[in-house]
Automatic annotation (TrEMBL):
Cofactor: a divalent metal cation
Keyword Metal-binding among UniProt keywords: yes
Amino acids binding Zn(2+) 1: H22, H24, K137, D264
Name of the molecule in the record: Aryldialkylphosphatase
Binding site for Zn(2+) 2: K137, H171, H197
Record PANTHER family: PHOSPHOTRIESTERASE-RELATED, PHOSPHOTRIESTERASE-RELATED PROTEIN
Alphabetically ordered keywords of this record: Hydrolase, Metal-binding
Native organism: Neobacillus bataviensis LMG 21833
GO MF, one example: hydrolase activity
Sequence positions bearing N6-carboxylysine: K137
PROSITE patterns: PHOSPHOTRIESTERASE_2
Domain of life: Bacteria
Record-linked Pfam families: PTE
Family: Belongs to the metallo-dependent hydrolases superfamily. Phosphotriesterase family.
Length: 334
């Protein structure tokens, strides 16, 4: 029997149920709490968030992984209140969305310091709350290549994952070969890593996705709902049907056991307007119906929303993993 850390304490893996793997209660860049243009009264933000989480629960959703990193609006005490009020399990993360969104305090810290920070938040707790992180967030800074700071964060995340058994969730699959090399050097197999936002309209690369899946990694189609047809759609959006067809091609290659889906939506955006009408519930109300029309069966949805999340979120026994044997050969081939 495995376990997963939530903000209200560890739960058994079988209690995860339908899981949204990459979401946000509220995400913003450092300083967003001082914003005046998009700031919402706490009562308003609470009401909106409660409504979306309860709707998620009505759709059968049971676990919500909040991928908001340190300094980007993560508020574990708030998450605890929301979880108690809605009955939704909320998994919080340690780590950073990307090096360029990390608070200045962390930017010159060593790999050893960052490793200890991540381990503390997973094993001891976050901000003195006693709530433990259930995953480690890392990401690629603007520009499309891992920065020197990004590489330190990735290396620290790999070491913390090995020592705690927690998984890693990335923001973007960009510069995947560099990331894979770092994980391999640290002895972390890719089955402990979700490489996120493969469906991001600005960074599409199906050969990269094949590489990740062939190495045993998880490929996240987790910006679902950022459709270019929607008013105010951000630059990473893409046509709705284009995303559906992309995902169907991935499934057709036999990678259903390597795929994870989510919306990367904000219950209530911080310091930016968000995308009106977009929430975690887009998965159930729009994306799954699109897949049904294409002939995808219910057993696939159970794999994507129940079994695959359970596999990656379950805490592993801390140990020194051996290098992933296929990595070098597959990197050379690609």
């Amino acid at each position: 029997m495995g376990k997963v850390n939530t903000v209200l304490g560890p739960i058994a893996t079988e209690d995860l149920g339908i899981t949204a793997m990459h979401e946000h209660i509220g995400f913003g860049l450092p300083g967003c709490d001082l914003d005046t243009q998009w700031w919402k009264k706490p009562e308003e933000a609470f009401d909106v968030t409660i409504q979306k989480l309860r709707r998620f629960r009505e759709h059968g959703g049971k676990t919500f992984v909040d991928c908001t990193g340190i300094g980007n609006g993560r508020d574990v005490e708030y998450f605890q209140v929301l979880s108690r009020r809605t009955g939704v399990n909320i998994v919080a993360v340690t780590g950073f969305v990307a090096g360029d969104s990390a608070l200045p305090y962390f930017r010159n810290q060593s790999v050893e310091y960052l490793t200890d920070l991540f381990i503390h938040e997973i094993m001891v707790g976050i901000d003195g709350t006693g709530a433990k992180a259930g995953a480690i967030k890392v990401g690629v800074s603007r520009g499309g290549k891992l920065s020197e700071l990004d590489k330190r964060i990735y290396r620290a995340a790999a070491r913390a994952a090995l020592k705690t058994g927690a998984p890693i969730i990335t923001h973007l699959c960009v510069d995947a070969e560099t990331a894979i090399a770092i994980f391999d050097e640290e002895g972390l197999p890719l089955d402990r890593v979700l490489m996120g936002h493969a469906d991001d309209g600005g960074y599409l690369d199906e050969e990269r996705d094949n590489l990740i899946a062939n190495l045993g990694g998880w490929v996240g189609f987790d910006t679902i709902g950022y459709d270019s047809e929607m008013e105010g759609a951000p630059y990473w959006s893409r046509p709705r049907q284009d995303r559906v067809e992309h995902f169907l091609r991935f499934l057709a290659k036999g990678y259903v056991d390597r795929a994870l889906i989510s919306a990367d939506a904000n219950c209530c955006a911080l310091g930016w307007p968000g995308l009106k009408g977009h929430s975690v519930n887009y998965l159930f109300e729009e994306f799954l119906p699109d897949l049904r029309k294409a002939g995808v069966g219910e057993e696939v949805f159970e794999q994507l929303l129940v079994h695959n999340p359970a596999k990656i979120l379950t805490m592993q026994e801390p140990r020194s993993f051996e290098s992933f044997e296929k990595t070098e050969a597959l990197l050379k081939r690609n």
